[in-house]
Amino acid sequence: MAQSDSENPPPDRWLPVVARSLAYLCITTPANRHAAQREKARLLDALGLPRSDTAALLNITDDVLRQSISQAKRKGQRKRGKKA
Questions:
Q1: Do residues 32 and 43 make contact, with C-beta atoms less than 8 angstroms apart?
Q2: pLDDT of the residue at 80
Q3: Residue at 7 is within a domain
Q4: Residue 4 is assigned to a structural domain of this protein
């Protein structure tokens, strides 16, 4: 009894699901649970998660996400002594 393709989707269809699940786990670990929203946004952006998915995980809009990532990057540059 062979299973049809509709019952077993190809692995590449599961990759986005796995990526979103791992991203969720990253932001809900005890170390990151109380981190600022912009730090979580920057982490998810660095992991390569699409901004729409990042915004959905953080329950914010794409515009707010863009601003949060920008602020986090500027804050990081100031800590290293660079101009924003």
A1: yes
A2: 65
A3: no
A4: no
